[in-house]
Amino acid sequence: MIGIALMFGLLITVFLKYREFSENPAKLVDAIPAGTDISIGEIQHTAVKDGRKEWSLEAASAQYSDSAKKALFDDVRVSFFLENDREVMVKGRQGQLDTETNDIEISGNVIVQDADYQLEAETILYDHVNRKINVPVPVTITGQAFKLQADTMTVDLESETAVLKGMVKGTFSEENASLF
Predict the structure, then answer these.
(1) So what's the pLDDT on residue 32?
(2) Do 39 and 59 fall into the same domain?
(3) Which residue of 1, 25, 155, 164 is 20 to 30 Å from 42, comparing CA positions?
(4) Number of folded domains in the chain?
């Protein structure tokens, strides 16, 4: 009888803890002891500042190292939210998030897209404090009427401006030549 009562009590405790963590996943992260490394499949995280979404990250899997304060991702997708309700989406094979600074590095066939253009590079770096995307490697940007290539590039997400450096080449279509 005592064994059955103990087993029943254990089952109720496990059920209540599962329910508590499933309703508030942040408690699960808080329950992980400091210094613990974890691996997770299918992850989603949103960074919010002053009630406004700054960026959102989704990945097929993640590994977190508490000692390095880094999260590593496979098949990562990050959406950056701009002031004018525009969204810039970045995807790549691997990603790395510095959990202390929120800086992000994405590499492996990186594609950056918004409504007007597509950028392709092998690596991009997101500077969270300055809200800038840095592309330290050759980059190709295409739009409806243009194609640009450069050795490096920096995009300021606040002012929505880009600076291309190094050997910069461009092609513009005839249909929009009157705009230049």
Answers:
(1) 53
(2) yes
(3) 155
(4) 2
